[in-house]
Amino acid sequence: MAIHFYEKGQLSSGFHGWQVTATLRGKRYQKYFSLIPPASAIPNEFWHRYQETRARYYDARWSARSAALKYIDALKTNHPNTRPCRGVGFRGITMGITTGERIDQERCYFSVNEPGNPVRFFITKDCTLSQAWEQAVVHWGKVFDIRPKDIEMKRKHPVGPSAFKALRKQLNEHEGYNISVEALHDVYAEQRAQIERQKASEQTQGEVTEDDLLGWYASLKQEISEYQNR
Fold first, then answer.
1. CA 127, CA 150: separation in Å to the nearest integer?
2. Any residues with CB less than 8 A from the CB of 98 and at least 6 apart, and which?
3. Which of 17, 75, 192, 217 is the right S-S partner for 34, CB 3.0 to 4.6 Å?
4. What is the pLDDT of residues 30-49, one digit of tens each?
5. Which of 213, 60, 59, 74 minimizes the C-alpha distance to 143?
6. Could you tell me if 167 and 85 are in contact, meaning their C-beta atoms sit under 8 angstroms apart?
7. What gap in Å lies between CA 93 and CA 110, rounded to an integer?
8. Three-state SS sequence of the chain
9. Which residues contact 16 (CB under 8 A, 6 or more apart)?
10. Cβ-Cβ contacts under 8 Å for 130 (sequence gap 6 or more)
11. Which of 42, 35, 29 shows the shortest CA–CA distance to 16?
């Protein structure tokens, strides 16, 4: 967005007044506000104030529109400079895998890319993928001044384990790394736990409920107490 004032005689076209320009999503917009009154009855001073007000209005309007479009695009697209398989579908957070001489130095993480102060949120045995994602999204919302409803929307849709699998493949096959499959162990922890719960449910044919488990626990606790008091 830009607003320019041209004095009389400054341009060969004879135009003098304000020019307002803007580029929104690659399309250029411009408006001219001449200081030549459309009728001789209009006082020059009045027309000058009127045209200046109009020029500043359009400049402010297009600036607001530009900010709104940038915000919307940031929520819906990866940054143009995001490298392959690092994007999460919006700007400000990317994925990564650390490397090192030992396998235990290979860890998956989310990076909140605040300019000059990036912060990583690692996925570990003590911090699941969902937990690391939530921490990253909350921090992203804070440093980039994201609206609460947009933070909540992103928080509810974490990146899946397959995204890190694709990143590992990209790094190994196209960028010269040799990251072991063990780097994905903690990323798939929640998925493994879900499969085990499903298997357990199938084995009991869905007959065991949470209330049943609590009842068994209470009964076992009572038996242990009675045994200890003998």
1. 23
2. 105, 106, 107, 109
3. 17
4. 999 999 999 999 999 999 99
5. 74
6. yes
7. 7
8. CEEEEECCCCCCCCCCEEEEEEEECCEEEEEEEECCCCCCCCCHHHHHHHHHHHHHHHHHHHHHHHHHHHHHHHHHCCCCCCCCCCECCCCCEEEEECCCCCHHHCCEEEEECCCCCCEEEECCCCCCHHHHHHHHHHHHHHHCCCCHHHHHHHHCCCCCHHHHHHHHHHHHHHCCCCCCHHHHCCCCHHHHHHHHHHHHHHHCCCCCCHHHHHHHHHHHHHHHHHHHCC
9. 6, 7, 8, 9, 10, 34, 35, 36
10. 158, 190
11. 35
pLDDT, tens digit, 9 for 90 and up, residues 54-89: 999 999 999 999 999 999 999 999 999 999 999 999
Q: Which structure tokens are listed for 182? A: 């063990």
pLDDT of residue 127: 96
pLDDT along the chain (230 residues), means of 10: 91 94 94 94 95 96 95 95 97 94 86 97 96 98 97 96 97 95 94 83 63 61 60
Residue 32: both structure tokens together: 């001219």
| Residue 221: per-residue pLDDT | 61
The dihedral region occupied by 130, where left means phi > 0, alpha psi between -120 and 50, and beta the remainder, is alpha
Q: Name the pTM for this structure.
A: 0.75
- How is residue 72 written in tokens? 């919307």
Residue with tokens 């499959």: 181
